[in-house]
Amino acid sequence: MDSTRALLGLRDALRAHQNQTGAWGYRGTQGSVESTCLTILALRRQPSIELALAVQALDGLQNTDGSWPAFIGDEPEGCWTTALAVLSLMAARHRTKGLARGIQWLLNARGREANWFWRWILSTVDNKVTFDPAKFGWSWVSGTTSWVSHVRLR
Predict the structure, then answer these.
(1) Is residue 25 within 8 Å of 38, Cβ to Cβ?
(2) Could you give the count of Cα atoms lying within 13 Å of 37 in the half-sphere of its Cβ?
(3) Tens of pLDDT, residues 3-56
(4) N or C: which end of the chain has fewer CB within 10 A?
(5) What is the Cα–Cα distance from 22 to 52, expressed in whole angstroms?
(6) 115 contact partners, CB below 8 Å, separation of at least 6
(7) Phi and psi dihedrals of 48, rounded to 5?
(8) Residues in CB range of 83: below 8 A, 6 or more apart
(9) pTM of the entire structure?
(10) What digits encode the pLDDT tens for the residues 54-80?
(11) Cα separation, 130 vs 74, whole angstroms
């Protein structure tokens, strides 16, 4: 099978599973930010109505604080999918205020260990910890550890 036909078949399959809101989901009718973002990344090189609807759907799913939830209708608190949404919109060359707000949310998001109190605990009381609490990023879900890992070379 040649690659052109395979790609066309994959695009057709993706288009067939797009729901009425312009999003994609895993199973059933609930749309997923992750599925929608991954499909935007797959379709981004060929402008189409499906791609435009997906970008519009992703824009509409953004929370007021600039983040994105994991699923349509999920809690209005952002999570890790914000990074994927930002990357997807950038790849689709969709520059909006929503994209800027998403980037700002990521820049402001901090894992629990970013707080001075947690850094103090991890460096004094719970000093058997194997990661450096001074290195942090955004967490999967707000208020949890950011999972930034640091390898120490000896």
Answers:
(1) no
(2) 22
(3) 788 878 877 887 888 888 888 777 767 788 999 999 999 989 888 888 999 999
(4) C
(5) 8
(6) none
(7) -155, 170
(8) 106, 138
(9) 0.74
(10) 999 999 999 999 999 988 777 777 888
(11) 34
